[in-house]
Amino acid sequence: MHSSAAVRRWSIGYGVLVAAHLGALLAGADDLADVTQCLLMPVLAGVLWTATRWPRGHTVTWAFGALAASFLGDAVPRLLDGDAAFLAMVGCFLLAQVSYVVAFAPRARRSVVRTRPAWLVVYGAVLVGLVALCAPHAGTLLVPVAVYGGVLTAMAVLATGLGRLGAIGGAVFLLSDALIALARFVPGWDLPGQGVAVMLTYAVGQALLVAAVASDNRARRRARPTTLAVRTPTTTRDNVVAFVAVRRVGV
After folding, report:
1. Could you tell me if 70 and 104 are in contact, meaning their C-beta atoms sit under 8 angstroms apart?
2. Of 196, 168, 169, 198, nearest in space to 181 by CA
3. Percent of the chain having pLDDT more than 70?
């Protein structure tokens, strides 16, 4: 059986790993940075596993899929070069975003789509602005980048259905990928500490999404016993009535 102590251990491990990765980036220790980045998502999956209980259900299952695809997005491009590496990264993280969209879709009624539709204008403006900045220099990569941007924005919108943690996590993840796109396609883009900023927002965004998914799982499990408690007496009375009726017929 999982315990809060296990959640703390995995969470501390993730925090230490993130710190080690950022430190490696700042120190120019490329090998250590590669190893620690590839370990981020497996350790975060450990956090999600220990922070949730059976029945984990739809949202948790698809969140694990998103973490697995994110791991591939961190690892696979290191085996390739140039545009092939970039497309591999985009493809893997596209799968991750699709998985998150599927995970969060059942909470759409609690998201800004239904509760604050005016916010859709803000998310749409961010997407249009980002694509517009990248388009002049994206060339043949414009279509995959635009598709990825659309799915990424949809993930951030639907993540608001998991509450504040989900909303912030989705927005921070969107920021991380926006920084990558700007550095790749906008000439002269030179953000100080670009690599550290990308990975910090990536690690924090993913962690917040996992925390939101775990919180949603706890809320659903707390609601389940209440539902059963309400239904059980009715079922029992119905069974007793049926039994008495059979006995009377037998008499």
Report:
1. no
2. 198
3. 88
